[in-house]
Amino acid sequence: MQAKDLFALTEEGEMGMMQAMVTITHNDHVPEMLAAMRRGPFAKPTEEEKIEYLLTRIRTDKKKGDFEKYGFEHVLSYQRRIAATKDTFMTRNKLTPLGILTDWWDRTEAQMRAALHAHILCWFKPRETRKDYKPVPVVPRTAPGTEQRQRPLDQKVAPLREKQEDNVYQHAHVGPITGEMVRPDVAGDNWGGYDVEKLRIAGLARAIQTRLPYLHSCTPLYCLKNRSACRFFFPWPHQPHQCYCELQRRLTEDDQFLVPHNLYLTVFSPSSVNVMPFDPQHGNDHARAYATKYCSKPEKWSPLQIMNFRINISGRSASA
Fold first, then answer.
1. pLDDT of residue 305
2. I need a surface site. Which of 73, 132, 228, 284 has the fewest CB within 10 A?
3. What residues does 313 pair with on adjacent strands?
4. Residue 303 has pLDDT above 60, yes or no
5. Which domain holds residue 266?
């Protein structure tokens, strides 16, 4: 599908503006991939292999596999996990941890090394806004220049007088999207109301956020290529109130490079799953142009040349 066709879907006479974009990458260290590389096709993962993607130190006898030689297993694992994610979080007109989706559109893209990842545009069930609802105002721009970029870290933003959910939650049934590291508040009596099991789950969730690529790292070859500032607006400054959904945080030094995500999806998937919300009040045109272009960009030829194979035809060999 071309960008113009996808752009047409977001018109008010069609499906309207989507509320979020979900990006799912595939992790080479998922349990079924490790088992297949070490013991053959369809081998059952061991208990250690099920959590190996979270470990920072691997035993010396667990050598790093040549993942690019297992293209079939990679595709099969990816498709099964995408299907499981859709069944659990994207059932139409059903309440899920991601929200109540009415429809979605997805496309699988291959990275330069032929690793697969999905871009999924999501439409959620509309919500009737309250009569006294007032949108969260925009933060005044003080950044130099005219290009899109994050506001300076030292810019002060006054907190809201009354706590209010962000605009995207006011207009649609969207599940919570976080931009904070898991940080249980255990102050007060009884450890803040958390029992041992809840704290263990919190520790697991924080380990996943740290181990998987949920913490962005700026590089000249990626987000800073031909740019003076990160094209993903990192590092994000401290925000005293919710603004554009994912920018709410308590400790800026701990959260300023954390990508937005749904915490339930994060714990569910052994691969990183980013959830980018689109504000219904501000920046619609930029969000629509970015999402449709990003999701419909054509594949480069190099990822398609995965391997050379030989075909015997009439006793002669030809390379394809």
1. 44
2. 132
3. 316
4. no
5. 3-319
Provide the token pair at 98: 């991601």
Q: Which residue has the higher pLDDT, 172 or 160?
A: 172
Residues in the chain: 320
Report whether pLDDT(254) > 80.
no
Beta bridge partners of residue 319, listed in sequence order: 310
CA distances 98 to 178, 214, 231, Å, are: 12, 18, 26
Asked whether the predicted pLDDT for residue 111 surpasses 80, the reply is no
**30-61 pLDDT per residue, tens:** 899 889 888 888 899 999 888 888 876 655 55
Residue 308 has which token pair? 């050379």
- Residue 290, helix vs strand vs coil: helix
Tokens at 35, concatenated: 């088992």
Residue 312, pLDDT score: 42
Give the end-to-end CA distance of the chain in Å, rounded to a whole number: 27
Sequential DSSP letters for 187-207:
-SGGGGG--HHHHHHHHHHHH
The residues, ordered by sequence, that sit 6+ positions from 38 with a Cβ below 8 Å of its Cβ are: 65
Closest CA to 168 of 266, 66, 21: 21
SS3 label, residue 213: coil
Can you give the pLDDT at residue 61?
Answer: 58
For residue 185, count other CB atoms closer than 10 A to its CB: 10
Torsion of CA 10, 230, 203, 27, to 10 degrees: 70
Q: What is the pLDDT of residue 315?
A: 46
Number of domains making up the chain:
1
**DSSP secondary structure of 225-275:** TT-SS-TT-PSPPP-SS--TTTT--S-HHHHTTBPPB-HHHHHH-SS-EEE
Rounded to whole angstroms, the Cα distance separating 182 from 261 reads 12
Q: Residues 277, 174: contact at Cβ < 8 Å? A: yes
Residue 178, SS3?
Answer: strand
Q: How far apart are the C-alpha atoms of 147 and 149, rounded to whole Å?
A: 6
